[in-house]
Amino acid sequence: MQAVILVGGLGTRLKGIVNDKPKPMALANNRPFLEYLINKLKNSGITDIVLAAGYMAEYIKDYFEDGKDFGVSIGYSIESKQLGTGGALKNAERLLHSEDILILNGDTYFNINFNDMYAFHKRNKSYFTMALRRVDDVSRYGTVECNYKNVVTKFIEKDDYLHSNYINGGIYIINKKILKYIAADRKVSLENQVIPKVMKYEYIYGFKSKDYFIDIGIPEDYFKFCEDMKRGMIK
Questions:
Q1: For residue range 171-203, what is the model confidence (pLDDT) as tens digits?
Q2: Which residues form the signal peptide (predicted)?
């Protein structure tokens, strides 16, 4: 299984803290946030990684190069214009050769067991599996409801209220065939456009987890991640 990390966003909400580098390269204990994601993938046995980059992509490439020094193999899909999360994934299609693809957001650390999630994905013969996290305040996140078989029945991306405390954790495993639902060379949101479209034709399964979760998109959570790392909560 290959992994794609989406690292092409502008990171506007974090500009006051990180204005000289792309958001996934924000430092925590002198290491970029993205390095923690890559290290977690490596420790899970996932070493074939594609970085879907755009904004300040050269900064990322100069640091990680081909990934050899980090024990992985890294390829780069560079977007010349902002393509959104779905468009960036479609743009990386030419580099994807495995049947199943693990997708991560480059500003989110969700300490799930990737291998357990993959086993769940295969057991359910799923074409699209979404990692879910239970939280008290759902207002910042996509909210998800599942039935008793863990099939996603409702998905609302931010701002709209749904009677659920499960959120979209920003980690997905998809069968490569799902890419046919994404238009090429267009700005497409994975959350707002692709997932609702897929739900019309395929089952999306929710993999529920209580593991550590944080989105560093706002300054207070970026600082929290730095503190949590110092306390040994992130390796």
A1: 999 999 999 999 999 999 999 899 999 999 999
A2: none
Question: Based on C-alpha coordinates, what's the Rg of the chain?
Answer: 17
Give the C-alpha separation, 139 to 199, whole Å.
22
Q: Residue 204, CB half-sphere, CA atoms under 13 Å: how many?
A: 25
Specify whether the CB–CB gap between 63 and 53 falls below 8 A.
no
Q: How high is the pLDDT of residue 17?
A: 72
Which residues does the chain have with pLDDT short of 50? Answer: none
At residue 12, the pLDDT reads 66
What local confidence, expressed as pLDDT, does residue 163 receive? 65
